[in-house]
TrEMBL record:
EC number: 3.2.1.39
Catalysed reactions listed for this entry: Hydrolysis of (1->3)-beta-D-glucosidic linkages in (1->3)-beta-D-glucans
Protein name: glucan endo-1,3-beta-D-glucosidase
Sample GO molecular function, one term: glucan endo-1,3-beta-D-glucosidase activity
Keywords of this entry: Glycosidase, Hydrolase, Signal
TM regions (residue ranges): none
Sequence similarity: Belongs to the glycosyl hydrolase 17 family.
Length: 408
């Protein structure tokens, strides 16, 4: 009995370590990020945003410029950040020297302390109202990539996010094809992506499709609710239980029809508005919470699309905050998971430690106590899942200790 008590104490200590240590018991999400827009006059400062992201255990974000305050605030953190070249300066960067100067002044000063993992050259340039921008896109992309390589950072990926409007056809997914008028430049762009092993990024919003045809498109399918009938592609016989995956696969098919293989498709923006004008059918906190919660569950399962089931779909939610200065319909100002005061717009299942964040919530969705709690992280987090060899060692040490206790 004298030796049993210390042994039991050691067992409890070891068991506590085993259960609390970060060795892979709790599943991790390595493919989810969030867009951090700044078109507002009431957002918290970048250091507070960093605290919020850290509290949520989100470690990937995307901004729409190269805001020096954000890049400085995120230094020495575990946040991976994708920055953006504004459309307005795109024409300058088809000059290699100008591109080198831009990289030298906007990117290099923050490396490597700030984890800049990607540069998006413009935003939805293929479908921008200013059609003259398109001729500058591929030269700018190539020049920025070359500048990064010359300066010792070839691993920073250079791409551009496109609207789903780049597709001539998107339904069914196997009919996916790019608009013929952009095929020439699209071919050049895809050639660059394939040669540099860089993803094709798409902004995909099932909400817009539902808003246009609410009487013919089932809401459960658009929201990605489990066990809905969905649709079957008549050519491939693949079954789709949510519209987002169908949109992504339509892009894969469009890329294949241009003669390219092996280019990964990622989602640079997707989300659902919690408020809209009277003609914006489906915009509500309930639908927004459902759409994003379903997407988070799929992310937890590391799902791929039906066409690429072994490649987990990387997604960046839109957006972190409601942005009060965005032009357009009411929905444009109401995509945020959070209000500018850091209270939840609705409960999507993200964990927050701060009680202030939830107590001041204006959410009209079900209470947080009944919602599923999901913690998120990426491969860049400082508390990574331990290597398999270490997990195995700890596991067998635990088994061996239990055998000694039970049988010695």
């Amino acid at each position: 009995m004298a030796t049993f008590i210390p042994t039991l104490a050691i067992t409890y200590i070891f068991l506590a370590f085993f259960l609390s240590s970060d060795i892979g018991i709790i599943p991790r999400v390595e493919s989810l990020g969030i867009n951090y827009g700044q078109v507002a006059n009431n957002l918290p400062p970048p250091d507070k945003v960093l605290e919020l992201l850290s509290t949520l255990r989100l470690t990937k974000t995307r901004i729409y410029d190269t805001n020096p305050q954000i890049l400085s605030a995120f230094a020495n953190s575990n946040i991976e950040i994708i920055v953006t070249v504004e459309n307005e300066i795109l024409s300058q960067l088809d000059d290699p020297q100008q591109a080198l100067q831009w990289v030298t002044s906007h990117i290099i000063p923050y490396l490597p302390e700030t984890k800049i993992t990607g540069i998006q050259v413009g935003n939805e340039v293929f479908t921008d109202d200013d059609e003259t921008l398109l001729e500058h896109l591929v030269p700018a992309v190539i020049n920025i990539h070359n500048a990064l390589t010359r300066l010792g950072y070839p691993n920073i990926q250079v791409s551009t996010p496109s609207s789903l409007a780049v597709l001539e056809n998107s339904y069914p997914p196997s009919a996916g094809s790019f608009k013929s008028e952009i095929n020439g430049i699209m071919y050049q762009f895809l050639n660059f992506l394939q040669s540099t092993k860089t993803p094709f990024w798409i902004n995909a919003y099932p909400f817009f499709a539902y808003e246009d045809e609410p009487s013919t498109i089932p809401l459960d399918y658009v929201l990605g609710n489990p066990n809905n009938v969905g649709m079957v592609d008549p050519s491939t016989k693949l079954h789709y239980d949510n519209m987002l995956y169908a949109m992504v696969d339509a892009v894969y098919f469009a890329i294949a029809k241009m003669g390219f293989r092996g280019i990964e498709v990622r989602v640079s923006e997707t989300g659902w508005p919690s408020k809209g004008d009277t003609n914006e059918v489906g915009a509500s906190p309930q639908n927004a919470a459902t759409y994003n919660r379903n997407l988070l569950r799929r992310q937890m399962a590391n799902e791929g699309t039906p066409l690429t089931p072994r490649t987990r779909l990387e997604v960046y939610l839109f957006a972190l905050f409601n942005e009060d200065m965005k032009p357009g319909p009411t929905s444009e100002r109401n995509y945020g998971l959070f209000q500018p005061n850091e209270s939840m717009t609705y409960n999507v299942g993200l964990t927050t430690v701060s009680t202030a964040s939830t107590s001041t919530s204006t959410s009209t969705s079900p209470s947080s106590s009944s919602a599923t709690t999901i913690s998120l992280t990426s491969s860049a987090t400082k508390t990574k899942v331990a290597p398999k060899e270490y997990q195995s060692l700890v596991y067998w040490m635990f088994v061996h200790l239990m055998i000694l206790i039970l049988y010695v």
